[in-house]
Write a structure and sequence with these properties.
By secondary structure, this protein is an alpha/beta fold. Helices cover about 25% and strands about 20% of the residues. The chain has a single domain, classed as Rossmann fold, CATH 3.40.50.150. Strands 9-8-7-10-11-15-14 form a seven-stranded mixed beta sheet, with helices on both faces. Strands 1-2-4-5 form a four-stranded mixed beta sheet, covered by helices on one side. The protein has a two-stranded parallel sheet with strand order 3-6. β4 and β5 form a beta hairpin.
Length: about 350
């Protein structure tokens, strides 16, 4: 199945012309040469590639079973709330809720959350509000801002950002399953300032000096060239813009980086696990200034764990049973390191709210 097989049924497809006009407006205001042709080409290619999703995942899921949209939403708390039971006619409620639960179960695993969908609790693997709550008091003003979120997963943080009334939030993630999760929720919530691209971090090259804030959370250790990811993030920031970086790290006072031989904490796709000082060095060597570490602590099993909505092995399964300070491979157990950094210059306030 291709994304284009379901796109006509999604709110995002209907909202796309407004998003594109907003991108053009921001580019004119920033006087920056956004490469719209390259962006279009990459988007079309991504949305037309064949991907594996369950056979019973069909476009009909996006009809939302006669639920009147947009539904009630509340993104202000730890749980992202999309819809209430009372949004559904009483005579159809049991039937529709049973169908929605089946839809959501087809989209398992849910890695980022938590959500409450039409009154149903969706307890994801990650308690993502813990990360957000640590960052949010330190963030620059997001009202009327233009934001990129690299590695958006199900879109939990996109919805959290929406509470701050940004002009535009563009999510970037090439994983079809994650976008399908977001589109299911967005078809109910219908937040016009949010848009999810089926694209990776490298396509931020098409947006030089464009974003006021770039969120790069849980990404750089998954790539063979983490400094290139930082360089592209830097180029996409407008002068005076802010990078919000979060990475897996190791607890060491030295300027060192762990490079696992095959797996780290059970995961094969982790290439580098840096110390705090190494993260700072990476940022400074990619031209960021005002680099501030705002959090560095051991990742706990209360933050990442297996649930019925993510029924597979999680953090506790990959720590040494006799010594939880080590992974099952014998490496130091993971910390999470949060850093804020700036691109030199002065951020020009946006002239008006675009949505």
């Amino acid at each position: 199945m291709k994304y284009t097989d379901i796109a006509p049924h999604t709110f995002s497809d209907q909202n796309r012309p407004r998003i594109l006009e907003t991108i053009r407006s921001v580019a004119r205001e920033n006087q920056t040469p956004v490469d719209m042709d390259a962006y279009f080409s990459a988007s079309v290619e991504a949305e037309n590639r064949d991907v594996h999703i369950p056979d019973d995942f069909t476009p009909d899921m996006y009809g939302h079973r006669r639920i009147k949209t947009p539904v009630f939403t509340d993104f202000s708390g730890d749980i992202v709330v999309i819809g209430r039971e009372e949004d559904i006619p009483v005579q159809e409620r049991d039937h529709i809720l049973r169908g929605v639960r089946e839809d959501l179960e087809r989209l398992i695993p849910w890695r980022k959350g938590p959500y409450r969908i039409l009154g149903m609790e969706l307890d994801a693997e990650w308690q993502s509000h813990l990360k957000w709550n640590r960052f949010v008091p330190l963030l620059p003003p997001l009202e009327n801002a233009v934001i990129a979120d690299i590695g958006s997963n199900s879109g939990y943080y996109l919805f959290k950002m929406a509470t701050h009334h940004p002009a535009l939030v563009m999510g970037f993630d090439p994983v079809m399953k994650f976008r399908a999760q977001f589109e299911y929720l967005q078809n109910l919530a219908r937040v016009p300032s949010l848009y999810y691209n089926l694209l990776g971090w490298d396509t931020l090259r098409f947006f030089p000096d464009f974003f006021d804030v770039v969120f790069n959370m849980g990404i750089i250790y998954h790539h063979k060239s983490p400094l290139e990811v930082l360089e592209v993030s830097y180029s996409a920031l407008a002068p005076g813009g802010t990078l919000v970086l979060e990475t897996m790290g190791m607890d060491s006072p030295e300027e060192v980086v762990l490079s696992p031989s095959r797996r780290y904490c059970g995961v094969p796709g982790i290439w580098f696990v840096p110390s705090e000082k190494s993260v700072i060095n990476w940022l400074r060597r990619t031209h960021f200034t005002d680099v501030r570490v705002v959090y560095n602590a051991r990742l706990g099993v209360e933050e990442q764990r297996s649930t019925s909505w993510a029924p597979y092995e999680s953090l506790s399964d990959f720590l040494n049973k006799k010594n939880p300070d080590l992974t099952i491979e014998g490496y130091p157990a993971p910390n999470r390191i949060y850093v804020m950094a700036k691109k030199p210059g002065t951020l020009v306030p946006r002239s008006s709210v675009l949505f």
